[in-house]
Design a protein that fits this description.
CATH architecture: Up-down Bundle
Largest sheet: none
CATH topology: 3 helical TM bundles of succinate and fumarate reductases
Mean pLDDT: 90
Low-confidence stretches: none
Distance between the termini: 68 Å
Order of helices and strands: HHHH
Radius of gyration: 21 Å
Number of helices: 4
């Protein structure tokens, strides 16, 4: 039988009516940092391959990574690594059934941003 009411049904939550939440933003950021970590892993592989192949290739990539732009990239990479690690830890906590309350989940999301920043600064100080 044909669905005659097809045009009157509401759509699933649409971006125009969906209110962004801390939990969704932190989840999206975990995915973005995971993808960006692939880029940073490729930079490390490039650096290692250049070190194994020729002096000029190594000088190029080493010069790039030791410049101010490379320092900024590496700092962002460290932040992404810490954020992604904290995001995975948060999901382990969720998998055990803890932190599923909305207020606790939002606090954990905010804590991931703050924690990744603090851990990045500590990493830069130590290294």
């Amino acid at each position: 039988m044909a669905d005659v009411n097809r045009g009157n049904r509401p759509l699933s939550p649409h971006i125009a009516i969906y209110r962004p939440q801390m939990t969704s933003a932190s989840s999206i950021m975990v995915r973005i940092t995971g993808i960006s970590l692939l880029f940073f892993a490729l930079l490390v592989v490039w650096w290692l391959l250049a070190a194994a192949t020729s002096e000029t290739a190594f000088a190029f990539i080493d010069g790039l990574l030791t410049s101010w732009f490379g320092g900024l990239l590496l700092t962002l990479g460290v932040w992404a690594l810490w954020y992604h690690t904290l995001g995975r830890l948060r999901h382990v906590i969720f998998d055990f059934g803890y932190g599923l309350d909305v207020n606790v989940a939002e606090t954990l999301g905010k804590g991931m941003f703050i924690g990744a920043t603090v851990l990045t600064v500590l990493t830069l100080i130590v290294v």
